[in-house]
Design a protein that fits this description.
The structure holds two protein chains of two kinds. Chain A is α+β, with helices and mostly antiparallel strands. Helices cover 32% and strands 20% of the residues of chain A. Chain A has two domains: 2-205, Distorted Sandwich (Beta-galactosidase, Chain A, domain 5); 229-379 and 388-393 and 413-620, Glycosyltransferase. In chain A, strand 7 (74-79) and strand 8 form a beta hairpin. Chain A is globular and about 75 Å long. The model of chain A is unreliable at 615-628 (pLDDT under 50). Chain B is an all-alpha fold. Chain B has one domain (3-154). Helix content of chain B is 68%, strand content 0%. The N and C termini of chain B lie close together (5 Å). The chains are: A alpha+beta, B mainly alpha. Chain A binds chain B through residues 108-113, 152-156, 162-165, 167, 200-209, 211-212, and chain B through 25, 28, 30-33, 36-37, 40, 43-47, 108-110, 112-118, 121-125, 131-133, 136.
Chain lengths: 628, 158
């Protein structure tokens, strides 16, 4: 192996497509790795911490860590079987190399010393000889700070971030120049270079040992494979569902059980536009579908932790619920715009924090209560404390359901009477009634819940139904539709094959679908990509009885084509190019994929679908009838 | 020697010392995690190391308070500022002598000369423990000054 002199230049190559990224993580934070061998996004130690690499949002100012051939190459990549260990294969005219990227998952029970937070990268020459360049350009706190770098000899290269310290260890000497660390080398067949990049806010830091890298890669791969082996899904979309589950697991913050929407901020929903939001927080509106996906795949530990987090970490605001929380259940920081980062392909501003924290969205009560109900319907036990919290939500909903709110799509406009919000208020009360009837809930003003649930039902049926359109509409007495109406059958308010749902589905297809079969989320919102989760809601609607199994299967197959080469989905899909848009990867989209596949498989096997359906998927007022 | 007074004042001063050192990490004055630093002498396991280290530091503080009390008795003088002066001297001793010797004393600490090995992986503190944050000496001086001042205030001469 020869080491060559080189000069460092700040990365000025064009932005990769959003779908060109892979994600690696350790269930505490995640990094995005481009297909060019460059880590362009990393926030340490948590998802919502400041970044050290943010070239994703500014090629010149954001910081990155590249390991790639210095000559032109083609790329193939994959995750090692059943894991989140990424392998990128570079083929050059002179040879080929394979790069492994991973973030070891911390096992606090192990009696060995390992760094608090670590990225391991290992590159091996598999044929011929290949010139490799390594550039690590640290820019902390969203590119605001150029941290000091110092060579500590055999201890490694140290990057100081004030309250934390990064250590870089490599199996070749690294040079420091222009506030960056770099090296060049030529690898011959069979030669391997290993790199460990760590972060800690504790001293003394644990310094990694490069000779342990192969063993740690193996241990990390096995850890992921062990986790994947718990999955109980054996349908036709197993590979895709397992990749979605693995992506979802990466977005679970293990110390608290919270699940973030996505590990990035400000990847645009419209290239060059301003629809750029910070998604590194936990949205309660994702709760119900997420819990159902986790439970029915057999990931009870994650489902239980998430439910615990929802019911306990939100305690500071209960019985009121905010729409989003930080990883530990606090209020997210006030939204600010970065003065440094210029945004992905010029899509400004880059936002840190999320102003939606101040919005009112009444649907979150239904989501959280339904998540608890799904947990109970599948055999989980709701303890007395949980029951008390749920009753608090029920009382709140019974009192406030008729209040206008911002609704599921969070438009930054005046509150409206959203059908989806009413639906979820009805869901909250309906599930509490069912839980009470099942004996899983003690106490609560059930008679009042029944009375209010009926009032909501009547309001939705009378004012959210547009006779002229023969469709439910987005807002009471409105004229427009949005894709969240597909959930009327998911939550059991309407039968999927009923007259009203079929009419609504026809209208949605007419107004919101593209020629490729994708769905926009709403008629009202500014131009953006089609919304991936909405297409999966459609597929699941078909699988639940709104269409044939063939229709559902065909749609899932169509949607599968819009994954990237690793099986990852973003928030949106560009109608024209098929490229991913918005924050990436998106937990909710992967939850949608899992849900649609589960419902399709259940229908094909004749298994029950969705725990609440037998009790509430009726067009009449079942609870009041029982009472009468 | 007033044994009862030593036990009580030593305990209170040690609690204050531990609180200040842990607090200064929480307030990001330093990265130095004293319980972890001490606990890893006993075990490599992270959570246990913190627990063991916390108790080790309590015992350590108590033992060191004996030397303070011994000096008070030997000089027949005890007051807060005399304790504070001893505390500052103690901090100088820790930051210069003990920290420079730590890679030799601590069974899991790497040295700058050899780098990390399979048995020694912890980052060494460097001169005045500056590797653990440039404000580390300040927090050590403050914590030990307070430790001495509390001992000087609470201890009663025999």
């Amino acid at each position: 192996m020869a080491i060559k002199p080189a000069s460092i230049s700040i990365d000025s190559r064009p932005y990769p497509d959003i779908g060109d990224y892979a994600v690696i993580g350790d269930c505490r934070t995640a990094a995005l790795v481009s297909k060019y061998g460059c880590i362009d996004w990393l926030c340490w130690p948590r998802f919502d911490s400041g970044s050290i690499f943010a070239a994703l949002l500014d090629r010149e100012r954001g910081g990155y860590w590249k390991i790639a051939p210095s000559t032109p190459f083609s790329v193939q990549r994959e995750y090692l079987e059943g894991s989140n260990v990424l392998q990128t294969r570079f083929q050059t005219s002179s040879g080929s190399v394979a790069l492994l990227d991973l973030m070891p998952v911390r096992d606090t029970t192990q009696a060995v010393m390992v760094p608090d937070h670590e990225i391991i990268r290992q590159i091996s020459c598999t044929a011929g000889q290949v010139d490799i360049e390594i550039e690590l350009v640290p820019r902390t706190n969203y590119g605001e700070k150029v941290p000091p770098i110092r060579n500590f000899g055999k201890l490694g290269t140290r990057i100081d971030n004030g309250h934390g310290v990064y250590w870089l260890h490599s199996s070749i000497p690294m040079q420091i120049k222009d506030s960056a660390v770099w090296a060049k080398a030529t690898l011959m067949t069979g030669e391997t270079l290993a790199f460990s990049f760590t972060y800690t806010e504790n001293a003394p830091a644990v310094l990694p040992l490069l000779e342990q890298v192969p063993g740690r890669v193996d241990a990390c791969t096995k850890w992921w494979q062990g986790w994947t082996a718990q999955a109980q899904y054996d349908g036709d979309f197993r590979d895709e569902v397992m990749r979605s589950a693995l992506a979802l697991k990466l977005m679970i913050f293990a110390p608290s059980g919270a699940i973030i929407a996505a590990p990035t901020t400000s990847l645009p929903e419209r290239i060059g536009g301003d629809l750029n939001w910070d998604y590194r927080y936990c949205w309660l509106r994702d709760a119900s579908l997420t819990i159902r996906a986790l439970i029915e795949l057999g990931f009870w530990l994650e489902a239980t932790s998430f439910l615990d987090w929802m019911l306990h970490a939100t305690r500071l605001t209960q019985p009121e619920l905010k729409i989003l929380y930080t990883l530990y259940g606090n209020r997210p920081p006030a939204e600010r715009e970065s003065s440094i980062l210029r945004g992905y392909r010029g899509s400004t501003p880059v936002r840190i924090g999320n102003a939606a924290r101040d919005q009112l969205q009444l649907d979150v009560y239904g989501e959280v209560v339904d998540a608890a109900a799904q947990f109970s319907f599948h055999g989980g036990e709701l303890d007395r404390e949980m029951q008390k919290v749920l009753i608090g939500f029920g009382d709140y909903v019974a009192k406030h359901w008729d209040t206008p709110d911002q609704g599921i799509w969070e438009p930054r406009t005046a509150p409206q009477n959203h059908t989806h919000s009413r639906l979820l208020c009805w869901t909250a009360l309906d599930r509490l009634i069912t839980l009470s009837e099942n004996g899983a809930l003690k106490g609560g003003r059930i008679d009042e819940y029944k009375k209010q649930a009926e009032a909501i039902r009547q309001q939705i049926q009378q004012r959210a139904w547009n006779e002229k359109l023969q469709s439910y509409v987005s807002e009471l007495d409105g004229e427009k539709v949005d894709s969240s109406l597909l959930l009327l059958s998911w939550y059991g308010f309407e039968k999927p094959d009923g007259h009203r749902m079929r009419g609504t589905y026809r209208r949605l297809r007419e107004r919101l679908s593209t020629s490729e079969g994708l769905l926009y989320r709403s008629e009202d919102l500014p131009p953006e990509g089609t919304f991936a989760i909405c297409s999966f809601w459609e597929a699941e609607y078909l699988a639940l009885g709104g269409g044939t199994t063939k229709q559902a299967r065909d749609l899932i197959k169509t949607l599968t084509k819009y994954r990237n080469d690793l099986g990852l989905f973003g928030e949106e899909i560009d109608e024209n190019t098929g490229q991913a848009l918005g924050n990436f990867p998106q937990a909710f989209t992967h939850v949608g994929y899992i849900g649609a596949a589960l419902s399709l498989t259940q229908r094909e096997k004749g298994e029950p679908q969705l725990g609440h359906r037998p009790e509430s998927a009726t067009p009449q007022t079942s609870h009041l009838k029982q009472e009468a | 020697m007033n044994w009862g007074s030593w036990i009580l004042s030593g305990f209170i001063a040690t609690l204050a010392l531990s609180t200040l050192l842990v607090g200064s990490q929480g307030f990001r004055l330093t990265r130095m995690n004293v319980p972890y630093l001490l606990g890893t002498i006993i075990t490599p396991e992270r959570e246990r190391a913190r627990l063991y280290g916390f108790f080790a530091h309590l015992v350590n503080g108590w033992v060191f308070s004996f030397f303070y009390v011994y000096i008070f008795e030997a000089r027949h003088m005890v007051n807060w500022w005399f304790g504070l002066l001893i505390g500052l001297a103690h901090a100088v001793f820790l930051l210069t002598i003990v920290m420079s010797l730590l890679p030799s004393i601590h069974p899991r600490m790497a040295s700058e000369r050899k780098g990390p090995t399979s048995r020694r992986q912890l980052e060494p503190p460097g001169f005045m423990a500056l590797n653990y944050g440039y404000q580390t000496p300040i927090s050590v001086f403050i914590a030990h000054a307070v430790f001495g001042a509390i001992l000087g205030s609470l201890y009663h001469l025999h």
